[in-house]
Design goal:
The chain is an alpha+beta fold. It has a domain at 137-217: 2-Layer Sandwich (hypothetical protein PF0899 fold), CATH 3.30.2320.30. 62% of the residues lie in helices and 9% in strands. It is built from 4 helices and 4 strands. Strands 2-1-3-4 form a 4-stranded mixed β-sheet. Helix 3 (163-176) links the parallel strand 1 (156-161) and strand 2 (181-186). The longest helix is centred in the middle third of the chain and has 112 residues, at 23-134. The mean pLDDT is 76.
Length: 234
């Protein structure tokens, strides 16, 4: 077994001695501590920045949504106000223009229709006048219808006719109404083709003028049979 070796050095054997200085160790420790503190501070700042950025993003999103909703409400409010004021005024003006145009169109259509009817009536008058002047068979049905309107107990009747028509109807009317005493009265003021029947206070107007006015009234016209001087069709 070996002997323990002593490391004790006697003082007389120590030539030079230097005191141990712990300052170098202390400085390194301080620098390491400062580094750790700086790193911790940097990490804390990073966390704070991240939190601020996250909060900003959330705030921005919330603010955007709020601003968008407010803008939508404001736009809807403006639309409602426009509809209630200017929109309604525009609609009223358009309706007035439409009604005016419709009225004018109807008036134009009525004017055209009336013009066509008047032209047709003028042509009918021309044809009827020609027919009355050349066809003696036109008048008998008229006189026959007028006489048939008398009551059954009528015994006598007076019939006013144009002198030209009396020559045509005299014998024929006597044959058709043997039980009726007919007095054919010539009247130059009567328009050929018409008649005026009188019996027991009853007057039946079968004149051309009366029949013409009655026929045109159904069409809403009041054109007279007689044409003013200067507008003669003949």
């Amino acid at each position: 077994m070996s002997r323990a070796h002593s490391t004790f050095i006697p003082a007389e054997q120590v030539e030079n001695a230097t005191d141990w200085n712990f300052s170098a160790v202390d400085q390194a420790a301080l620098r390491f501590a400062a580094k750790l503190k700086a790193q911790a501070l940097q990490e804390e700042r990073a966390r704070d920045d991240s939190a601020r950025k996250s909060g900003y993003s959330e705030g921005y999103a919330a603010g955007f949504e709020q601003g968008h909703a407010q803008a939508t409400l404001e736009a809807q409010k403006q639309i409602n106000e426009y509809i209630a004021t200017q929109g309604q005024e525009a609609a009223d003006k358009f309706l007035q223009l439409f009604v005016a145009a419709q009225t004018q169109l109807e008036a134009t259509e009525q004017s055209i229709a009336k013009g066509v009817l008047e032209l047709a009536c003028e042509l009918a008058r021309q044809i009827l006048r020609t027919e009355l002047s050349v066809n003696p068979n036109v008048l008998p049905p008229v006189v026959r219808e007028a006489l048939s309107m008398l009551t059954a107990d009528t015994k006598a009747a007076s019939v006013r006719l144009n002198p030209v028509d009396i020559d045509v109807l005299a014998s024929e009317m006597q044959r058709e109404f043997p039980n009726l005493s007919l007095n054919l009265v010539p009247d130059a003021n009567m328009t050929p083709g018409g008649c005026l029947v009188e019996a027991a206070g009853t007057v039946i107007d079968g004149t051309i003028e009366r029949r013409w006015t009655k026929a045109l009234s159904v069409l809403g016209l009041d054109n007279a049979w007689d044409v003013p001087a200067g507008d003669s069709d003949d």
